[in-house]
Amino acid sequence: MNKQIDFSIVIPTYNRSNLLKRAINSILNQTYNNGKIEIIIIDNNSEDDTRDMIEKYYSDIKYLCNKENRGPGYARNRGLVNSSYNWVLMLDDDDELVNGALNIIYDKLNSINNLDKYPVYNFACSNGFILKDFMILNFSDYVNNVIKGDFTPIFNKKMILSENLKYPDTIVGGESFLWYKIAYKYGIPTWSNVVCLLHDDAPIRLTRKESQIKFASEHALLQEQYINYFGDLYKKYNVDELHKRYFAASIYFLLSNNRQKARRYILINIKNKKYFMVSILLLIISYFPLNVIVFLYKIFR
What we know:
By secondary structure, the protein is an alpha/beta fold. The chain is about 45% helix and about 15% strand.
């Protein structure tokens, strides 16, 4: 007999009130009779009418506003801690759940004998792809592109908190850091069923080059975290991914004008035949004025 599953759905947001309505409505339009649903909005101190919009149209929603914009990771972690239910779905403010998404998730979770064995379960977004209908993904799968695109996570709150697992507290995201940790230690049960429709109509995104230039120092430090924490695992499962991290770190350190750190990673990559020529070029560029480096990045990014 299937058991009841209650969902807390967390939506971090920042200055996207119009898009946020679409995300919220996609939840409210769900036909779900197998448990309770709560919606939690974590506002990264928006400067638009987000607060007024929530109070006017969605007064029953739990709304928490951060004192400053500390990025999506901090907001998601806060949402997890403040959720009323054990099963927590993370939804971006510019995306939406497909019709019947919660019923799909409910059916699949009930097919697992021991749900407390894993801290997170993944379901495909509209661009998500895995090789089979269902897989338990490990670290090697992530760094060898067995999984592609985006996936919607369903967290087991009790286990996440007890194991002290959390998103990186950085303004530039880096959520794959969390997936790598979980996949290596526990594995991540993942279904190909699409539950979330992605959109690209947000005017400002962390992946755009303007944002990457603005937050270059944060991106550089994040790349160092990947290198320091997963370096040995990269060497074991896909060393080329480690060299890509070196390359990214050198670029971001150059953009943040930390030339010493940039050259350190450039010199590491010079020893790799695949990156030898581009490393030589980067080493030369590292002596250019910062405005020239930024200009070249905008052209070739």
